């Protein structure tokens, strides 16, 4: 019985195993990467990210929101977010 089991189990070296494992992991990452990728316009930015993206301060961002010049979304208490499409719309409006 032992003789038959040895024939069924291929013997590979540690470097061969590492190479095979790396290939399998890489394939899975690449396969799943496209599944989880969101279109650019669906990314939600924090106030800090929006400030950096637009080159504006927090008070300016809040003023633009109040004036209706910059659209934002609240995801709950203290969870203000901006869609990239809204940040781009503000930029394309001439930044008035």
Automatic annotation (TrEMBL):
Source taxon at top rank: Bacteria
Record-annotated Helix-turn-helix domain positions: 44-94
Listed name of the protein: Helix-turn-helix domain-containing protein
Single GO MF descriptor: DNA binding
Pfam families, per the entry: HTH_17
NCBIfam families, A to Z: excise
């Amino acid at each position: 019985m032992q003789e038959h089991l040895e024939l069924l189990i291929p013997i590979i070296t540690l470097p061969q195993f590492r190479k095979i494992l790396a290939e399998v992991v890489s394939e899975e990452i690449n396969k799943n990467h496209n599944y989880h990728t969101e279109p650019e316009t669906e990314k939600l930015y924090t106030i800090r990210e929006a400030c950096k993206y637009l080159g504006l301060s927090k008070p300016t961002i809040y003023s633009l929101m109040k004036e209706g010049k910059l659209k934002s979304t609240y995801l709950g208490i203290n969870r203000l977010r901006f869609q990239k499409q809204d940040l781009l719309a503000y930029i394309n409006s001439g930044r008035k």
